[in-house]
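input
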Amino acid sequence: MSVKKLRLPAPAKLNLMLRIVGRRPDGYHLLQTVFQFIDRCDWIELSPRQDGLIRLSNPLQGVPEESDLTVRAALLLRHAVGDDSLGVQITVEKNLPMGGGLGGGSSDAATTLLGLNALWDLGLSIDALAGLGLKLGADVPVFVRGFAAWGEGVGEDLTPLPELPEPWYLVLAPPCHVATGAVFSSPELTRDNKQIKISDFVAGQQENHCLPVVVKMYPKIGEAINAVGEYAQSPKLTGTGACVFGAFDSKADAENAARSLSVEWLVFVAKGMNRSSVHSALGIA
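output
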């Protein structure tokens, strides 16, 4: 085992579109979505242990250590290679709001898989890691694969979109946590929307079909959409929220809007990225 320590980014994602186009017999919804990364991130530190234990230095309050996605990712990876001697100390620096639709937990898990593949010198392929990631959550594979993508199925069937514009985003985090399960189980959610093509998205079909339900359940998110809409055209909800965002041509314009909105809201500015920063950090092509 290598003795080095790794400190790696776990970038957030935005859903630039989210369509609900069906439902599987097991209850999972069939989606069409577009993922893009931003340069706002959590940080994952991985230090090898010689005692074969997998430990989390700073468990989240109210979340048992064994339930944390980073620990689950490490255990899953170790089980997959069949070597119980592999150990790691995991430290998570959380910067992304929880329950905001930015994929923080999924990204943390993906960075753990990618980082431990390197730290433990396992040599598993990205396909193999993405397959493991899907067992942890539908959003984990896109973070493992590390490219902006068109997603279908439950979000795991990915087509790279390397030519997406990479604008500056203003992201606003309303003071609420969306219960994703409640949104997807709402009788008011339309589940048989028409499927579209990537070209339709590029031409401007960029709705989020969860937005009407989410705004009705969480009026503060509607207020947030309106607030961002004062500065950016076509403000959007990422995933089921709660975070909303708007795109800007320049960092200065995004920062000017952020200064005004920060009087009443929690906001940050981030750059859109079509390649994941953890892939860059690990030298993955």
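quick obs: The CA atoms of residues 174 and 220 lie 7 Å apart.
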